[in-house]
């Protein structure tokens, strides 16, 4: 019982209550065979009529459009757009910078915040009979749970989230290129990361994923301290990925830091939007249930 509660740690009832009843719609046609609510580029039996084709020997007579036969005296087959399940793969950054611990002990680390997001999305995918997957990464892919359906797979994702720890450097560009090769079915790729690194290289990685027909959603997660830079005394700042330390006067450096941070954020957002992907910026002080609910409602309205 204790193990079950530990595994379910990142399924917050407050978050699940706020997203209850909201579906994640596919923006593009998806591939697959399972019944769900997304359009598929293959033809099959469904409620949405597409067009006609000529009848050929061996076709199911039940597919014949008898009204067309009466009008044209020719046999035509009705074709419908087959519905399919959607793959949703969360890419979770587990590098050292995601483990930043603030003086405010009531605030989650970026990795904890990201894990709640990933767990909630996986739960939602399972509830709407879609396939959830999880990839954790730093300089390379660490865990790879391909998108699948079912409660057992959900427990595997939750167990993985419960066991990860932040550490190491990041190479987001190379990881995204590898992800583009590994995910063979089109679907939704959700990156949850602080996007630490060179903005141009990060955007180049996104392009590889988008170029393989994947839809992309970026949750750019940062800590409040990274936004507001609240330090006011001589401080030794340590890079949590490289280990490098710098002694600096934050009052002197504050404006320069905030200007550079905002430029970096703008570069990521503009780069992501440049190829039609969705972008959401969030601080670890933002309620997760509000962030996720607002995005899902936006998506539902945009892609209905």
Search tags:
10 strands; Rossmann fold; two-stranded antiparallel ribbon; 10 helices; 2 domains; alpha/beta; 39% helix; 6-stranded mixed β-sheet; single chain; 304 residues
Fold topology:
Elements: H1 2-7, H2 13-19, E1 38-54, H3 66-72, E2 76-84, E3 87-93, H4 110-127, E4 131-137, E5 141-148, H5 151-163, H6 172-182, E6 187-193, H7 199-211, E7 215-222, H8 224-228, E8 235-238, E9 245-248, H9 250-273, E10 278-283, H10 288-302
Q: Explain this structure to me?
A:
The chain has 304 residues and is of the alpha/beta class. It contains ten helices and ten strands. The protein has helices spanning 2-7, 13-19, 66-72, 110-127, 151-163, 172-182, 199-211, 224-228, 250-273, 288-302; strands at 38-54, 76-84, 87-93, 131-137, 141-148, 187-193, 215-222, 235-238, 245-248, 278-283. Strands 5-4-3-6-7-10 form a six-stranded mixed β-sheet, sandwiched between helices. A two-stranded antiparallel sheet has the order 1-2. A two-stranded antiparallel sheet has the order 8-9. Helix 7 (199-211) links the parallel strand 6 and strand 7. The longest helix has 24 residues, at 250-273. The radius of gyration is 23 Å and the shape is elongated.
């Amino acid at each position: 019982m204790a193990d079950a509660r530990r595994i379910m740690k990142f399924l917050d009832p407050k978050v699940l209550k706020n997203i209850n009843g909201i579906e994640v719609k596919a923006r593009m046609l998806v591939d697959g065979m399972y019944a769900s609510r997304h359009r598929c580029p293959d033809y099959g039996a469904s409620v949405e009529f597409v067009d006609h084709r000529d009848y050929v020997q061996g076709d199911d007579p039940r597919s014949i459009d008898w009204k067309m036969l009466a009008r044209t005296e020719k046999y035509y087959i009705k074709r419908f757009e087959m519905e399919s399940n959607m793959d949703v793969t969360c890419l979770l950054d587990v590098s050292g910078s995601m483990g930043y611990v603030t003086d405010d002990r009531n605030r989650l680390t970026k990795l904890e915040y990201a894990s709640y997001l990933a767990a909630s999305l996986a739960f939602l995918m399972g509830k709407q009979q879609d396939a959830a997957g999880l990839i954790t990464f730093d300089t390379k892919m660490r865990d790879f749970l391909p998108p699948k359906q079912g409660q057992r797979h959900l427990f595997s994702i939750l167990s993985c989230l419960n066991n990860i720890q932040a550490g190491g450097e990041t190479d987001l560009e190379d990881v995204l290129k590898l992800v583009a090769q590994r995910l063979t079915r089109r679907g939704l790729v959700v990156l949850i990361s602080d996007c630490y690194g060179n903005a141009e290289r990060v955007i180049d990685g996104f392009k590889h994923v988008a170029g393989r027909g994947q839809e992309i959603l970026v949750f750019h997660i940062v800590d409040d301290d990274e936004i507001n830079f609240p330090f006011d005394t001589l401080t030794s700042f340590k890079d949590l990925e490289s280990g490098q330390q710098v002694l600096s006067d934050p009052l002197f450096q504050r404006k320069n830091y905030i200007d550079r941070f905002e430029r970096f954020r703008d570069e990521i957002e503009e780069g992501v939007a440049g190829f039609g992907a969705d972008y959401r910026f969030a601080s670890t002080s933002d309620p997760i249930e509000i962030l996720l609910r607002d995005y899902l409602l936006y998506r539902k309205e945009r892609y209905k």
